[in-house]
Amino acid sequence: MATTKIYIVYYSTWGHVATLAEEIKKGADSVDGVEVTIWRVPETLPEEVLGKMHAAPKREDHPVITAKQLAEADGVLFGFPTRFGMMAAQMKAFLDSTGGLWQSQALAGKPAGFFFATGTQGGGQETTALTAVTQLTHHGMVFVPVGYTFGAGMFGMDEVKGGSPYGAGTFAGADGSRTPSETELAMAEHQGKYFAGVAKKLKA
Length: 204
Prior knowledge:
The chain is an alpha/beta fold. The protein has one domain: Rossmann fold. The protein is built from seven helices and seven strands. α6 links the parallel β5 and β6 (142-143). It is globular. The N and C termini lie close together (9 Å). Its EC number is 1.6.5.2. It catalyses: a quinone + NADH + H(+) = a quinol + NAD(+); a quinone + NADPH + H(+) = a quinol + NADP(+). Belongs to the WrbA family. InterPro entries: Flavodoxin/NO_synth, Flavoprotein-like_sf, Flavoprotein_WrbA-like, FMN_Rdtase-like_dom.
């Protein structure tokens, strides 16, 4: 049986999205016949600026991806923090570099999904994904939202939690000090497993 290659491609400033990426990988790894790789997109800010932002060190165990490498994947999950309700510029810059893939429609028909981190509850847990769908549309990719497949974990009102039917998510807090909760991590793992299952079916 052919292996289904899943790429988890992310940008992270304070490490929240990187943490979700690891959980998503755990879930996807639990599906037989699936090979998962975590990648990060190139940084666009100088070190000096990142230092002033108190950005987390880059995860050197996650290699930097090039646009061309996206075409190797059978399915892609994109993760990014929100900037004013939309994806961070670093992820947009990376997607802007995929013009060659767009021209050849190399990504058409491939499944894709999103996960994200926002600073506040009104920061864009839905708008970030909704506005990112345009990127998939132009590439002809198939958007795979997580829906309400995570079940009861999405309906509880007893705690503040990120994530939505669009994908797994977390709240970083305005200063980046909040870390992903157990529920948020569990939903990320679920998304990885769910998405890998869908990608495997599409590949078959």
